[in-house]
Design a protein that fits this description.
By secondary structure, the protein is α/β, with parallel strands linked by helices. Helix content is 31%, strand content 13%. The strands form 2 sheets. A 6-stranded parallel β-sheet has the order 2-1-3-4-5-6. A 5-stranded mixed β-sheet has the order 8-7-9-10-11, covered by helices on one side. Strand 9 (162-164), helix 5 and strand 10 (180-182) form a beta-alpha-beta unit.
Length: 244
């Protein structure tokens, strides 16, 4: 049996998006993972974690992105299977998929019944969205990203529309084919040096064929999302081949 893959992801606070890498590898491969520091990691998947990798890192990149647009990556020795979006990919040569692996996370739970007209998903730093009167009047389901990730995913799937200041809330809405509205956490703008500002949002939006639009309910072209999903299925097949 293959050893667990040493995998780096942000784990300072509970956040369902940061836990998706392990869940997806467990779902789509016969492999397991163990958390490791960036310099020891063999793989990075979901998240804005490429900024954390050391120079000449030699592991596998499977859908991760940058946090800051100006970060200069040193991935010449890495195996790049996928990058989150075209802004992260700018200047990186090679043949790889584009797309956040979270687009496959709907596969982790049975297809839920639609029970709520609206789901609201605040980023873990966002203390305003859950009480926003523009949305509270619709009696939404408030989804806490700090809950068990499978519960968060299932709860998103139970909603007919999504409003989210969590990027992976939007990504999961796209995975399920749910109309969604982006609302940016105030902290993401006031602490852009820590949170990356709008870069990751622009990067992901472009990966599904859209410009970043805040405060408007939208859906990406379903065919574009399906294309990204098919490419990401292939990425997990390649992960299994590399680590087996």
């Amino acid at each position: 049996m293959a050893s667990p893959i040493k995998t780096y992801y942000w784990n300072t606070r509970p956040n369902f998006g940061d836990l998706l890498t392990t869940l997806l590898i467990n779902k789509f491969t016969a492999l397991d993972t163990v958390w490791a520091e960036p310099q020891d990691a063999e793989l990075v998947g979901v998240g804005s974690v490429l900024d954390k990798l050391p120079e000449n890192w030699t592991g596998v990149v499977a859908g991760a992105g940058k946090l800051h647009e100006k970060t200069r990556l040193s991935l010449e020795q890495a195996v790049i299977l996928a990058l989150r979006g075209p802004l992260t990919a700018k200047g990186i040569r090679g043949h790889y998929a584009l797309g956040d692996p979270g687009l496959l996370a709907d596969e982790l739970v049975p297809l839920p019944e639609k029970e709520f007209d609206l789901g609201v998903i605040p980023h873990w730093t966002d203390h305003t969205l859950a009480g926003d009167p523009r949305f509270i009047k619709y009696h939404p389901m408030i989804i806490d990203v700090r809950n068990d990730p499978l519960k968060v995913i299932a709860d998103i799937g139970r909603c007919k529309k999504i409003v989210s200041s969590s990027l992976h809330g939007i990504i999961l809405a796209d995975a399920f084919g749910i109309p969604r509205r982006i609302e940016i956490s105030p902290r993401a703008l006031s602490h852009a040096h820590q949170e990356g500002g709008l870069f990751k949002w622009r990067d992901y939006s472009l990966s599904v064929g859209m410009e970043l639009t805040i405060g408007k309910t939208q859906e990406p072209d379903r065919n574009v999302v399906l294309e990204r999903q098919y490419e990401l299925f292939d990425v997990f097949e390649e992960i299994e081949r590399i680590f087996t």
